[in-house]
Every structure is written in structure tokens, then in C-alpha cells.
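Lecture 7 notes. Example A: sequence first, then its C-alpha cells.
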Amino acid sequence: MMPFPTSAVRAARILVAGDIMVDRYWFGEVERISPEAPVPVVRVMRREDRLGGAANVARNIVALGAQASLLGVVGADEAGAEVERMANEAGIIACLVQDPATPTTLKMRVLGRQQQLLRVDFEEGPDASCLSRIEARARELLAQHDLLVLSDYAKGALGGVQALIAAARDAGVPILVDPKGHLYQRYHGATLITPNRAEMQEAVGRWQDENELMQRAQALREHLELEALLVTRSEQGMTLFTAAGREHVDAYAHEVFDVSGAGDTVLATLAVMRAAGLGWTDAMRWANRAGGIVVGKLGTSIVTAGELS
């Protein structure tokens, strides 16, 4: 593999737009079962908040040495203030749209002895006025960036995704999308989408062999007018489809501990390498390595340039 392109990465400017969330972890000890119900009692010893969703993509971009701006919706609440604080602390340029009527998306996980026991989600979608503000802000920011990343977690921030893709195309900025669901027509005109194996099966149906996957992937890529389509396949690695054909890399992971946020790391690395001028195949190889490193960590985590190189 080619050396890590440090200078080019430092010059890369990437705009990340999408669903922002806080990943909240409560770590504790489990020593008894509750007398009220057959559930473990967790004595919380430590609390930690991490940037999640689109914010985790931005955090990974900065960790690799590139510049990241973050665009999305937060509420006028404690979690929203925490997003801004953590973003600033990480070196991310926060371009947040605040919606007093919508709480910041929050995923709270309770862990005992390093095992997740419970997850509680707090979420509501933004209204149409928020989506209009996101589009207007994106049009202002695109001229200052080399690449647009759209991180879709189906929380509503990308309800106007087609307008964002059109704005980026007008500005001549490539668009990388981490999709959600199976209705991929909404991503028509993007440069690349990165469905995982399950998402790809939702979109094109189950395939019997690699040849059938290639036929279905290429048909989808051409239908959506994409330059490339990358299917992330967990222990089977990653497969890239372009007009030139098919490229595949085997999984890099040595030990899988937690897959939370692994897709964010892959997307961020792919974006950084493309913004640094690498071709699709080389960018995929770096992204595969980063994904293999991050699944060996607990919770929503990052990979640094030092770890990757």
C-alpha cells in the first residue's frame, strides 16, 4: 500500500452533513439482581459522551488530519450544547442549525463489565423549516470545501437530500453518501454511495454469487448515475464497483470487539483519501484498514493517522 499522504490530507476540506447525535455511555459494575424485577442493577462508576452519526464522521476526518465542517440539526438542550462543545474540542467547525422544538438525538447505553445491557434512544425528526435552513447553509459552505459527505441515519436531517446533491453538483463538489433504507432513488446523482451488505440486499435483493452481485450493483450504479458504489461486507471485506469493473479487498480486522460507528470511520477515511487525490481503489484500501482497526475498540471510536499509517 502507498504511504499515508500526510500533506494532501492536511489540505483537504470536507463538509459533513447529516444526522447528528450524542452517544452517551454509562459504565458500571453489576453485583446483584434487582428485587423489583429480574434485571441487573448497574452501579454507575463513569459517564462518557461521544459524537455520533454525522458528527462521528467529522470526528474521524479530523483525527486523520483533514479539515471538517459539520452541518446538521441539534435541539436547544443539554445534548445540543454538548455536541457543540465536543465538536469544538475535537477541532471540527460546527455549523449547527438549532431547532428549539426538536430534541437533539441521543443514544444512551448502559454497560456493565464492558458489556452493553441497555440502550435508550431519544429522537424526533426536524420540521420543513429546519431542512430549508440546512440547504441554505450548505449552499453557502460548499464553495469552501473539496468534498461533501452525507451521513444518513434516517433521523430526518437529510429529508432534503436531493436538494443537497443538486447544490453540490452545481458547485462541482463530489458527493459521498452513507445511505439508509432501500429507496436509493433519493441519492440519484451522487458520486458514490456506501451501503453495507444488509442495505445492499434491501435495495437489490439477495444474490446467489459474486457474478450476480456485480450485475445488480452495476445496474444500480448506472441507474443512479453514480461514479462508484462501495459495498461494505463485514468479515467478507469490501467490494467496489465502477465503470472500469469490480475491485475487492478482504477484511482487515484481526479481532472484532464492537462494530458501533465502523461505517462512519470507513466513510470518513474514504472521503479523506478522495479529497487528498487518491483513486477509488487506493481510497477503499485505506478505508478497509481503518474499519478493521476501529472494530477492535469499544463504542463509537476514531482511527488516527498514526494508527492508520
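Example B, a different protein, same format:
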Amino acid sequence: MSAIYAPLKSRALIALSGEDWRSFLQGLITQDVETLAPGEARFGALLTPQGRLLYDLFVVDRGEAGAWLDVEAEHRPALMQRLMIYRLRAKVKIEADETPVSILFGDEVPARPAEGFWTADPRLADLGWRGYGAEIPPGAVLADEAQRETQKLRLGVPGPADWGSDKTYPIEANFDLLNGIDFKKGCFVGQETTSRMKRRGTIKTRMLPIAFDGPAPAPGTEILNGDLRAGEVLSGADGRAIAFIRLDRMEGQLTADGRPIRVETPVWTGL
């Protein structure tokens, strides 16, 4: 698989600027931004006060210009509105930014793209580079976002289609395994519940890839271990899907919609 370039029309940017942007974000999201370096991106989320996942985001340090938040395009207006509520007296400017987002991935991706604003995807090295206003590099193959989703599914990396909004705890969506939570940074919205789950080891379910023959069962299809409920199917394609799985019932004879399935635990999970 050569270097593949794909525009991400599902993503959009929020520009943060002003002298307080860093301290403003630091008290809100799951990721540490105080040590973020110019040109670096970090993966994180904004949670509900009860600790459930509202919006995923990448914080991209733009140096003196401030930062970008790389977010789901459909959630940008709601996220901006929520940030405005939290702003209070902080000296931070919050604006929509129409700079396009793209990705570069594949077996022949250079150690670092030579031209344009590129930053390594902080979740997994195999996810390649995220570009902001970056053109397709010489020799790369132009693709659509569906190819990116296929790659994520192959790697077992869940996305917004799997966790929705205000339904899932970030640890259940593997944010702790994908560099999405800094447990040493101090307070953030939803921090108490998140830290308690990690500290007590009360993680009973996670999003993991499943394999099967034929088309993917419909989202919401129940997964059974014998007669016991073991989870449900989330997003997927032919032969593979992401599922919400009970960790104590992931072994044995699993079925979904009457068909046999198997959990394929990615190496990066350490499970």
C-alpha cells in the first residue's frame, strides 16, 4: 500500500487564540495542553460533568497563532457553543476556521512529509499524518474518506460513529489506550469519574473489532455468548466491525444475528 492522501470532509476546525487559550483548555479536556509543542497534535475529548464522552478532538499547537481544535464537522457548532459557555472571563477567542483537514497514511508514507502543515496522528503510528491546508504530496495516491475508515477498522480503532455523544465513557472507547487521556494533568470536566474507573479497574466493557463472514450485522445487533448478552455491534463493513464487548464474555461461542463471530483484540490494546 503506497502513500494514500484523503481529504477528511467529516472534520472541521475551531481556531483558539488569545493569551489564555492554553489554560482555558487545560481545565476542560482530557488531554494535557500545557506541554504541547508547536506543530504537535494531541488527541483528547470534552466530557460531560458525569464523565461521558461528548466530543472527540485533536488539539494542534500553531505556535504564536494559538491552536486548532480538529473536531467532527457536524458537532462543531455545538462544541463552539459549549466552549463559549465555559469561557467566562478567559482571554480566549473562539472562531470557526475553514482550513481543510486531510490525512496521509500507508506503507510508503515518509518519515515526515516535506511540504505543508502535517502532524503525526497521536493515537497510533499506523494512522499516519494529519494535514491542515496541506496539498497532496508527490507520489501519493488520492483516495476518499471511506478508505481511511477501512484502515481504522482494520486496525480496530473506533470512531465517532461508534461512541456517539453522551452515551459512552471514554475508557470504554479506548481513549486511555489511544493516548487520549492524561491521568496526571489534574482536573478536567468529568475527571472524577474517569480517574475512578481507571484507578479501581472497573472497566467491564470496551470497543473491540469483531470478524465474521459476509456483510456486517446492523448497528445495535445483540452479540450473544451462548444465551448470555455479550455486547452489541456498532459500525462495520463486510467481514469486520467494531463492537461494544463485555470483557468477561468475549471468549467462547459468540454470535450476532445468528452468525458466528470472533473478537480480534488489537496488539495496541494490550488486552
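Note on Example B: The CA atoms of residues 12 and 76 lie 7 Å apart. Helices lie at 21-26, 76-87, 145-155, 160-163, 191-200.
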